[in-house]
Specification:
Blueprint: E1 8-9, E2 14-19, E3 22-27, H1 29-35, E4 38-42, E5 49-50, E6 55-61, E7 65-69, E8 74-79, H2 82-85, H3 89-92, E9 101-105, H4 108-112, H5 117-124
Antiparallel strand pairs: 1-2, 2-3, 3-9, 4-6, 5-8, 6-7, 8-9
């Protein structure tokens, strides 16, 4: 399992990377391994401003569909449209090519309050 130390994590197995006030969000290596082969990612919330822990989309694997929860409040700016044709990137490269959304963060302090890599690793082991 890979838990990059430069990211923050949620109990719902999303990761977040912050540059200025723009966050990149996806699901963790642990989450993709639990889901299995991902066949579809649906994000219908681009352009919306949503509170933390709101469902912002779904990820569909061969045997299940899981909700995606927003780690922090903000406005969803962009969906990684590459996932429309290559949803397997979430399995193969969850932290780089398999990112899901870009978010304009309402309050950067919310990101700091999320789990660091060591805390998240303890949660899933």
């Amino acid at each position: 399992m890979n838990f990059p130390s430069n990211l923050r994590y949620t109990k719902d197995h999303e990761w977040i990377s912050l540059t200025g006030n723009i966050a990149t969000i996806g699901i963790t290596d642990f989450a993709q391994s639990e889901l299995g082969d991902i066949v579809y990612v649906e994000i219908g919330t681009v352009g919306q401003t949503l509170p933390a822990e709101t469902v912002f989309g779904t990820v569909e694997a061969v045997k299940t569909v899981s909700d995606l929860f927003l780690p922090v409040a903000g406005k969803i700016l962009e969906f990684n449209t590459v996932l429309e044709k290559q949803p397997e990137l979430v399995n193969n490269d969850p932290y780089i090519g398999g990112w899901m959304i870009k978010l304009e963060v309402s309050d950067a302090k919310e990101v700091e309050a999320l789990m660091d890599a060591a805390t998240y690793q303890n949660l899933v082991h």
